[in-house]
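Quick question: what would this complex look like in 3D?
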Amino acid sequence: MSQIKIVRIHNELLGTYGDQGNAEVLAFRAKFHGITTTIVDVNYNDPLPTNGDIYLLGGAEDAAQLLSLEALRRDDNLEVLNLAIERGAVILAVCAGFQIIGNKFWANGQEVDGLGLLDVVSTPGDKRLVGDIKTISTVLGFELTGFENHMGRTILGPTAEAFGKVVTGHGNGDSKFDGAVYGNIFGTYMHGPILARNPEFADLLLTRATGRKYAQITDPLASKYASWRRKVIK
Amino acid sequence: MRLKIAILIAKSAGALSRILLRKSGETIPGRVLLIIYPKAITELAQNRKIICVSGTNGKTSTTKALVTIISKLGSVTTSPTGSNLDRGVATALMRKSDYAVLEVDELHLSRVINEAKPALVLLLNLTRDQLHRMHEVKRVAERWATSAKAAPNTLFVGDIDDPFVALALSAATQSHSVSFGGRKHLDGAVCPSCGKYLKWSKNNFKCSCGLTNISPDELFEPGTAALRNATLANVAGKLLGGKAIAIDEKSLERSVDREYKGVKANLRLTKNPASWGEALNSVVGDDVVLIVNSREVDGIDTSWLWDISFAQLQGKRVVVCGERGLDIAYRLHVEGIEAEVTSNFADAISKFSSGSNVHVLAAYTAFHELINA
């Protein structure tokens, strides 16, 4: 596959914390591998494209999070996501997006059912967790950095695995783990955007989306930036 | 303790801070005063007209413009530069005057409204900024609306093209709304009043719950942020019985001209996606320095750099520096703009030859260091 479609879901709603950059970094890294990309922005009233290779969700405030959930439940959108998962498409969901694809979460003081794509349940904590975060990714096997800014406390069910072990920060709230992963579905609390601060993770998602292995990219600035963040966040 | 004694102690603390710590001594008095006399703002605000200016961008320059207008009506005290928290307000109020024109931080506005009972509050705009501290834009907007509702004797004036300002004005008993014909808002997808998907047609919004920027009390032509803020200062000034002043856009855009070894630099404050957008639109030359820091007032995270399109910088020579120079360099790199990374401003500006005109877009802390140097 030399062409992939990146679907940025509801950036107008799920774009409060800069996560829209994840799509741009994916497209940028893809170029090095000879993959051409299209970024499709899906708004609240739009149907989800059925042929996406990577679906992205970002962080949001409560009201926006609920609107996004409502739109994803509408029409065939949830079916589109389920079929996409079956054919091996990648989902990366950050913060509010991570909660949306879980089983249950809280917004505006009420518990709501999520999309149930990841076996996690989120509840609000008593304190907002804000600051730099560093984890060791269980999938990549090395350090990832980002910035977290959320109230969520997320507990993993039996079919989800933690995405990272927390070195610095709070992650899912217990300061032990961040995010969750199941197959090609990734959830995390890390902004930054996460793919900008950890470009190797973008490469992994491209590999997962295309089923191909690519040669390592040489992009000195990306490496310098990523390793500097890993060094300064103790 | 009597208020007079408390003020005396607070003033001495300020003097000590100036002498011993060589600080400006502008925030210490207010800070001390509020600790030893918590009701100081309430009491000092009595028997004079209080005017507050708040919003994400343009507070300082709009406050200055409003001071110029109000000073024709009587004596005015105003906020110490860059000190817009409750302690800055307290410091300003320690000086006797007929009027106090106060720049107030978005999160501190509720306290100041509750305690100082202002005659007029001018709301400029509300967009994503310092989210590590504000957490959510809506959280700030809700505080504004709650305190507007609880202040029936205060006149709220604001630019309702911003849905969050519109919300605050709709909650107020007395309001005077201004529109510049509408404009897009980065955080405007959700109605801040009812939580529904906000219905926009071109640049105007109209929600089924009633929140809208159509049919304001006063309608002006669209313009830059600087122009809008100057207009708002004039509107507020006139409502207070003052005379409008000539609008000097240049002086209102927080831009300062400096020279560094023959390099002419235009310094401009950039601190969030909205102010970056305005500043990038103003870049006319080919030489640019960008400074990104991440101290408390800059916002300790830089994720928001990805909310900005830097397309205007294509083809220009871009040099970056600051504590987070690498963050902006990588963000530009992904947009296809290769910047030179330097370790500090002196190195950055030295890249340009004498006689060149350089646009310097600087983070909050960097901007203040440069203009105070």
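Answer marked as accepted. Chain A touches chain B at residues 12-13, 15-21, 24-25, 28, 44-45, 61-64, 66-67, 108, 128, 130-132, 147, 149, 191-193, 196, 221-222, 224-225, 228 (CB under 8 Å).
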